[in-house]
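Sample pair:
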Amino acid sequence: MRRYGKNPDEDDIRSRPNPKGNRPRTNIRPKHEDAAEGMVLTVDRGRLTCLVGDTVVLAMKARELGRKAAVVGDQVSLVGDLSGKKDTLARIVRIEKRRSVLRRTADDDDPFERVVVANADQLAVVTALADPEPRPRLIDRCLVAAFDAGLEPLLILTKSDLASADELLETYRPLGIRYVVTRRDELATGEAADRVREYLEGRMTAFVGHSGVGKTTLVNALVPDDRRRTTGLVNAVTGRGRHTTTSALALPLEKVDGWVIDTPGIRSFGLHHVDPSRVILAFPDLVPGTENCPRGCSHDEPDCALDAWVAEGHADPSRLDSLRRLLSTRERREGD
């Protein structure tokens, strides 16, 4: 069937200037000079809650960002309706360069990295001394991830009224990690929150820990105006708690400047993304001793120069033992 008149050269014949569409494509992206600065507080199914000034705004990622995803802690630029009113939606058009990125994988053989938080300064590893029992290998894995991301670790030990903290602290004392020990009754009086808050002032701190250790309960005590549902009861059979925090959430501290990021309870902390050669950077007293190590030294083999370095008195032997224990977590499951 003919779709044109008798004369095929007539001017009224329609033609497409671009065979792939009606509009020419361009790689030029809008600059959005008028975009407002904000911080991502939480992410839920493609919708991002952001703080712009003193206003909480719901936003979505702009199409021009492609597959680049924003995470909790990201500094972003937004356009659109920034009133924060019900049923309004802004648009994130830029994600600023990150100061730090805390990552994890589902397991050591999983190449897919999951960004936990961005721009944090500190990683608070929360673990209970009993009910549930502490898992040192999981703590070690969190420490390795913190050192790799350039975050300062903080160890928070809860439920010291049920068990002593001495044995666990002895394990981590050579690492020089700061720590806080709390009791359950101190949460009600606010004493636990006051002691922990001293280590959080002026920082953005991500809280991690497996379910049932009292992580979210502690966050609630630190930020009473933004209470979240407290942790569920610990399962008497598995020794594990129920997950009550389903997505990471950034909250401003009360009484002092600073932020806490409450993250979902973790059952594993894969380290596939971590290069073992970077872990030693968290041990500056041992770094000079690696100059005579063989190329590609794992620092846990017979020819490692660190043994002679420590034997000569340049560093405490317990520091080398701690380094090798952390390096070994890259090869072991956290439940071992």
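The radius of gyration is 26 Å.
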